């Protein structure tokens, strides 16, 4: 017991005299007093020689030096960390560096804004596959077999043994699926990516984005279509925006029209953006052809409807004055960061 006390006192004295001024000395202390092969473990060999009635007192002596070593180590470690922080001369009350989360793509911004506008008047979003069969992409939309849009120059066809497939050329195919699975009233918009076999240039691309709308109910008229599109134009381009409708042709609507909005830059007076006409084309529309309704199982004698479709890139071009469609797909951060804050 006396040998044990003598060894404990020696170690306590050594701990008190130990000087720690750098990480190396701290590691030396850890290895000697706390590590897996520390000197305190040697005391347990002496503990075995202590009589049973004195073992409790001997254990307390060993714990005393063990606790002393741990307290000394933790205090020295904390002091070294504090000294290191002070040497760096840092002001920890200052705000941290801002974390850049990136910018949202302009196509996504415009697409979400278009969806938000139509959702406010009761339209719901519908989505469908980008690889479509002939029925949903062409036949159900009143495209005759000899229509030019079926030609290899316009459509990316996919070879399949079972049936002819293609990358969808418009999101009208989603509208067909909605009409096949839902009875009127139907009020839906179909945003998504579409594909056309076209040469890539500043004004055209082999893929782009559309938002197409469909409204079917009893007694739907062309006046309903015009007021819906006027509402959209004012919400998107400003309260003073005007629209005009020009006769056009689409296989799935009759009558059909192209829609122009008044140029917001020149207020309709004429400028180089609108080619001095005062108008900018934004979308196509029309009354749904009865053949399209019947092909999807909707009674055209009871129901009528209108449809419209717009290119998201076209709306973004008018909104942001970007004249080269290729910029939208090149992922140049210098271009993308202009549209939303990267903070």
Descriptive report:
The chain has 343 residues and is an alpha+beta fold. It has 2 domains: 2-88, no CATH class; 106-336, Bira Bifunctional Protein, Domain 2 (BirA Bifunctional Protein, domain 2, 2-Layer Sandwich), CATH 3.30.930. It is built from 11 helices and 10 strands. A 7-stranded mixed sheet has the order 1-5-6-10-9-8-7, with helices on both faces. It has a 3-stranded antiparallel sheet with strand order 2-4-3. Helix 1 (2-17) runs parallel beside helix 4 (55-88), helix 2 packs antiparallel against helix 4 (55-88) and helix 5 (106-119) packs across helix 10 (312-320). The radius of gyration is 38 Å and the shape is elongated. The model has no long low-confidence stretch (mean pLDDT 85).
Would you kindly provide a brief summary of this structure?
This protein has 343 residues and is α+β, with helices and mostly antiparallel strands.
How many domains is the backbone divided into? Answer: 2
- CATH architecture field of the largest domain: 2-Layer Sandwich
Report the sheet with the most strands, covering strand number, pairing sense and barrel closure.
Answer: 7 strands, mixed
Helix content: 25-40%
* Overall 3D shape: elongated
CATH topology of the largest domain: BirA Bifunctional Protein, domain 2
The tally of helices reads 11
Corresponding CATH superfamily of the largest domain? Bira Bifunctional Protein, Domain 2
* Strand-residue proportion: 15-25%
What would you call the structural class?
alpha+beta
What's the arrangement of strands in the largest beta sheet?
A: 1-5-6-10-9-8-7
Spatial extent as radius of gyration: 38 Å
Instruction: Compute the separation of the termini in Å.
Output: 69 Å
Task: List how many beta strands DSSP finds.
Answer: 10
Low-confidence spans: none
Give average pLDDT, whole number.
85
CATH class annotation of the largest domain: Alpha Beta
* Oligomeric state as shown: single chain
> How are helices and strands ordered from N to C?
HHHHHEEHEEHEEHEEEHEHH
